[in-house]
Amino acid sequence: MSVVPSPSGLDRTGHPSLRAAIHDALRIEILEGRLEPGNLLRIKDLQSRFGVSASVVREALCQLASRGLVLAEEQRGFRVAPVSAVDLEDVTRSRAELEEFTIRDAIANGDVEWESRLLAAFHKLVRLPKRSAAYASEHQAFHDLLVEPCRSEWMKRFRKTLQEHSDRYRRLATNHNDDGRDIDGEHRELMNAALDRDADRAALLISEHVRRTARILARHGLTTADRQPE
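^ thats the sequence. predicted structure below, dont judge the formating
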């Protein structure tokens, strides 16, 4: 399936260039599942859609490829990256290890202001309706804040990439439910471990938190999203 040209409607607000705006527009569509795994991304279609040159589209697609969201295939152009149970397992294992490292370092280096902000972020999160756009945004903010004091910018950058891929799987498995999971309780335990400066417990909790999400996705809907390129 190729991308169907549509009116641009490209929002350049906050973007330094057309390339950045196109990159972000396509990135969001891939993460939200509007561009399905394996879809062809024809440069001519995207040129028509966004009203830009082929070189700008190609630059945006190459950047998405560097993030693992798009595949660049020799002689075949670009496709939305496929998904699979094997890849989900790999993403989950790698992300869990990075989450453990970053939360340990954050606990070792976080200050009182960080503790106060973490407590406030948790209280804000639990008051929002689940599955709302606001909750999704605050959920990510809470997890980012947990590891904010980590001194390794590289590790935090890799963590964000893996978090992004995990979120893509979550959105693709649209029919999943949480199997009675106490997500607020999990976040409360994570926060308390961080505030208590209990790095071992926090590392164990964050690893299980990430792995539990992946297990739920594997049970609910991933097989229907387990598609390879044509």
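The first strand starts at residue 40 and ends at 41.
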